[in-house]
Write a structure and sequence with these properties.
The complex is a heterotrimer.
Chain A: H1 12-18, H2 22-50, H3 61-95, H4 104-122, H5 151-179, H6 192-224, H7 237-271, H8 278-292, H9 307-319, H10 321-335, H11 344-367, H12 369-375, H13 379-409, H14 415-441, H15 458-486, H16 527-533, E1 548-550, H17 556-572, H18 576-595, E2 601-603, H19 605-614
Antiparallel strand pairs in A: 1-2
Helix pairs in contact in A: 2-3, 2-4, 2-15, 3-4, 3-5, 3-7, 3-13, 4-5, 4-17, 5-6, 5-17, 6-7, 6-8, 7-8, 7-10, 7-11, 7-13, 8-10, 10-11, 11-13, 11-14, 13-14, 14-15, 17-18
Chain B: H1 6-9, H2 22-52, H3 62-65, H4 68-93, H5 97-128, H6 137-170, H7 176-207
Helix pairs in contact in B: 2-6, 2-7, 4-5, 4-7, 5-6, 6-7
Chain C: H1 7-44, H2 49-71, H3 80-102
Helix pairs in contact in C: 1-2
Classes of the chains: A mainly alpha, B mainly alpha, C mainly alpha.
Chain lengths: ~625, ~210, ~110
């Protein structure tokens, strides 16, 4: 059969720059996320090294400020968010039985925009100093009066661009889940990871525009001399805190919900039981997302909003413990009486539960406004949010990476190295952050570059730094695992864990370009498990074998992102000609995309049967 | 799952061509999602404006600055353009390409008229009222909110113009129809934002 | 949507043709009236300020409902998800506005 349109298929580097395949974009997100995660990790180790002993002079106070700012910003926006998107890209379309995402082109655009935003933020190190006002960039610390270098400009412009990419990615996944589900895959039959990816995307959609505005206001203040936060001309610094946290609090649920999803998929697989309380899990996820938009001011108890606002936000914050508690109990009940296998993925998942509970408990403590006056800006807060973000999200990510690695790369990660890495990481984690609770209660402030001896801080800080080094070893072991595994043959079967319950395990590892030769028919929750129990080895197809329509690869997303990058850089240095040039490149690419229809191309049935056997 | 090619369906265009293909339906749905996000974007800008609207420092106040006739004219222009954009979509649903192009052109002209009024207004403020971006917190909030809306109008004008060109070249197909439908949604949303701007910025500014 | 291609659908299509423009012109006139009321209330002056503010907000909300419902077809069936997402967008926007009014200055 002749192709309707001849397509040019790229190879090598061009293939990666132009790809619109969600599986490849997932790998790109993984590589970029790992890179930034590494940079953020090195920054963390430098922070801990500075604090290993009192009156240390490993880095200067200014460098320390830059390190804590970049550690937080890099880890949250450029490290773990893309790792979440990596898993979402690799898994969500497969879990809903889709051949592709709703907008392959936008998916690629989202990735490249994120990457160039991240690069812009990080080149600040080489261009006169990184941002130094904390990841929250509170005004007036972040205004030109107190932060005279271009550092915070890199923060506002870099995050703006990266945030644009994230927003595009979020809309793509919302549309994908709404419209691309296979026949029979109703909302209440979707795997939990897809559910959490869906809800996370919705939070991205509603939270990111707020930070977009916040960053615009801050950059206008800094670059155009506006007065939003300039008190002498009527501005108000508290406004920044509100806008930042209206975004910032939902952001932490953007981070944690996908981890909940990973855990909810990993635990049933390795307990050989269906997830306990599936509907209550879905309900709890939605409720957490909803409440997440009504608690932001608990970050601001000490600004002086008054007892009414503080009481309201205290109560709404404590309410979140209810749906989260539902989830914890559901995981425990899933494990209860199961035939549990402690693979690396399940070790991380099991480590997640108690660790995250500890972070949740300190969260409720912090939610109490009067108590928060004591905890505020101490290491107690640092310990709390690292327990939920590292002990929650990062453990979840490692669990997910071990679990889906064979689906992404066709190779099962080495179990022995996986377990060694897990023990280093989790012991190191608790050593690092458990003691910080007590440092905080003893009065050690966060964001202080050194401390005097004789306050009882010395030993606990030493322990904390040793723990951080152990976490570093854990991450290195994981990297070693990746290298070792990559040198092995790609021989993972469709269902390497043998107890896979969801659709992604019904197709080859890694899946062919078109994912499903025939769109599967879904007959219930845990679609693949259901077929297995009925004695089938594969899914029942919902359509006959036929030609498969594929979207064309395109270099435009990459060029558009370069254009935005150039424009952003020009804006920071008042080079408005450069801004115009960059924007023209971007808009011309948009026009080209609109003017020239993408007819895509087709894969013939003969090709799929042949590939389907050996891929 | 695979969409029919544009050439194959031009002969018999369905009543709602924007929803005839999966791609078209995806586009319309995703644009709604995008507008949900845009609501938050403008909501935050409005919040900023409301927080700072009385912080005039040494500059002029809203009451001294705003002239209702200009605002009323701009409002009327944008309202009419919303109606012409509805007519355009109705023409599209009837498969009448000529009338569709005509209404789109009228919409663009009205959009340009609105932009002209806004630029004139801003120029007046800057040149004659000493009211610039850096004057006060109120002025910064005003220019950012109204300017963001103006930038949206500008983008809409360029976008719809581009679509008029495509319509002439490619005709009304299941590929071009969703683009036109989505641009009309965008145009209505701009009008929705303007309803809040003339209420919150101008009229409330006069009331105090 | 597919029903419009059948014979039965031609009746529906016909009704669209005759009903459409009228409905939208009425919505337009309604919008204009709402706008005029708002402008007139301000131009007239002398009216109680807090009453005027409430009136203005009510006029704006009504007009937005007309735009979203009639011109952007949100009131038509099959718009469950758009309504959900728009409503939540407005909800978050509303929290930001309430914050600006009550919790920024004290």
């Amino acid at each position: 059969m002749a192709h309707a349109h001849s397509v040019k298929r790229h190879t090598g580097l061009m293939d990666w720059l132009t790809t619109v395949d969600h599986k490849k974009i997932g790998i790109l997100y993984l590589i970029a996320g790992a890179l930034f995660f590494g940079i953020g990790g090195i920054e963390a180790l430098m922070i801990r090294w500075q604090l290993i002993k009192p009156m240390n002079d490993f880095v200067s106070a200014q460098t320390f400020n830059e390190l804590i700012t970049m550690h937080g910003t890099t880890m949250i926006f450029l490290g773990v968010m893309p790792l979440i998107f990596a898993l979402m890209n690799a898994v969500v379309p497969l879990q809903i039985g889709a051949r592709d995402v709703a907008f392959p082109f936008l998916n690629s655009l989202g990735f490249w925009t994120f990457l160039f935003g991240g690069i812009l933020l990080n080149i600040s190190w080489m261009m006169g100093g990184a941002p130094d006002a904390g990841w929250t960039a509170y005004t007036p610390l972040s205004t030109t009066a107190y932060s005279g270098t271009h550092g915070v400009d890199f923060y506002t412009v870099g995050l703006q661009i990266a945030g644009l990419g994230t927003l595009i990615g979020g809309i793509n996944f919302l549309a994908t889940v709404i419209t691309m589900r296979a026949p029979g895959m109703t909302f209440m039959r979707m795997p939990m990871f897809t559910w959490t990816a869906f809800i996370t995307s919705a939070i991205i959609l509603f939270a990111f525009p707020a930070i977009t505005v916040g960053l615009v206001l801050l950059s206008f203040d800094r670059i155009l001399g506006a007065n939003f936060f300039e008190v002498s001309n009527g501005g108000n610094p508290v406004l920044w805190q509100h806008i930042f946290w209206i975004f910032g609090h939902p952001e932490v649920y953007i981070l944690i919900l996908p981890a909940f999803g990973v855990i909810s998929d990993v635990i049933p697989t390795f307990a050989r039981k269906r997830l306990f309380g599936y509907s209550s899990m879905v309900f709890a996820t939605i409720l957490i997302a909803f409440l997440g938009f009504m608690v932001w001011a608990h970050h601001m108890f000490t600004t002086g909003m008054g007892p009414v606002a503080n009481a309201l936000f205290s109560i709404s914050t404590m309410l979140i413990a209810v749906p989260t508690g539902i989830k914890i109990f559901n995981w425990l009940f899933t494990l209860w009486g199961g035939q549990i296998r402690f693979t690396s993925a399940n070790l991380y998942a099991s480590g997640f539960i108690p660790t995250f509970v500890m972070g949740g408990v300190t969260g409720v403590m912090l939610a109490s406004a009067p108590a928060d006056y004591q905890f505020h800006d101490t290491y107690f807060v640092v310990a709390h949010f690292h327990y939920v973000i590292v002990g929650g999200l990062v453990l979840g990510l490692f669990s997910g990476l071990h679990y889906w690695w064979p689906k992404m790369f066709g190779r099962v990660l080495d179990e022995k190295l996986g377990k060694i890495g897990f023990w280093f990481f989790i012991i190191g984690f608790h050593l690092t952050f458990f003691v910080q609770h007590f440092l905080g209660l003893m009065g050690m402030q966060r964001r202080i570059f050194t401390y005097l001896p004789g306050q009882g801080f010395d030993t606990l800080n030493l322990v904390s730094t040793v723990g951080a080094l152990m976490m570093g070893v854990g991450v290195l072991v994981f990297l070693l695992n990746v290298v070792v595994t990559t040198r092995r043959p790609a021989d993972a079967p469709n269902d390497p864990w043998e107890d896979g319950r969801t659709l992604e395990w019904s197709i080859p590892s890694p899946p062919p370009e078109y994912n499903f030769k025939q769109t599967p028919l879904v007959r219930g929750l845990d679609a693949y498990w259901k077929e297995k129990m009925a004695g089938h080895t594969e899914m029942t197809p919902a359509e006959p074998v036929g030609p498969i329509h594929m979207p064309s690869a395109s270099i435009l997303p990459f060029v558009m992102s370069v254009g935005i990058f150039v424009a952003g850089l020009g804006f920071m240095y008042h080079q408005y000609l450069v801004v115009g040039l960059g924007l023209i490149v971007t808009f011309v690419c948009m026009a080209i995309r609109s003017l020239y229809d993408d007819h895509g191309w087709h894969i013939d049935p003969e090709e799929t049967t042949e590939k389907g056997v050996k891929a | 799952m695979s969409a029919p090619h544009a050439e194959q369906v031009t002969s018999a265009l369905p009543h709602e061509p924007e929803k005839a293909t999966l791609e078209g339906r995806n586009k319309v749905l995703a644009f709604w999602l995008f507008l949900g996000g845009e609501s938050v974007l403008f909501g935050t800008l409005f919040a900023t404006f409301l927080a700072l609207r009385e912080q005039i420092a040494d500059g002029p106040s809203a009451d001294e600055l705003f002239k209702l006739p200009t605002v009323a004219a701009a409002t009327f222009i944008l309202l009419v353009s919303s109606l012409t954009s509805v007519f355009a979509i109705q023409a599209m649903h009837k498969g009448n390409r000529k009338s569709l192009s005509l209404w789109l052109i009228v919409t663009v002209i009205l959009g340009l008229g609105f932009l002209g009024l806004e630029i004139y207004e801003f120029a007046e403020y800057v040149n004659h009222e000493k009211f610039g971006m850096t004057t006060s917190a109120f002025s910064s909030a005003f220019y950012t909110l109204v300017g963001f809306h103006g930038a949206h109008v500008l983008f809409g004008v360029v976008w719809i113009s581009l679509l008029i060109g495509q319509l002439a070249k490619k005709g009304l197909t299941v590929v071009t129809a969703p683009k036109i439908y989505v641009s009309a949604m965008y145009w209505h949303f701009i009008d929705v934002v303007w309803v809040f701007i003339f209420t919150v910025v101008y009229l409330l500014g006069k009331v105090g | 949507m597919s029903e419009h291609n059948t014979n039965q659908g031609s009746a529906v299509r016909h009704r669209h043709r005759t009903e459409g423009p009228q409905k939208h012109v009425i919505a337009f006139i309604f919008s204009i009236v709402l706008t005029l009321i708002a402008f007139a209330a301000v131009a007239a002056g002398g009216v109680n300020a807090s009453f005027t503010i409430i009136l203005l907000v009510v006029m704006a909300v009504l007009q937005v409902l007309v735009q979203l419902g009639y011109w952007m077809h949100l009131k038509d069936k099959g718009h469950m998800i758009p309504i959900l997402f728009m409503a939540f967008g407005f909800f978050v926007a509303g929290t930001a506005v309430i914050t600006a009014l009550y919790w920024v200055w004290w």
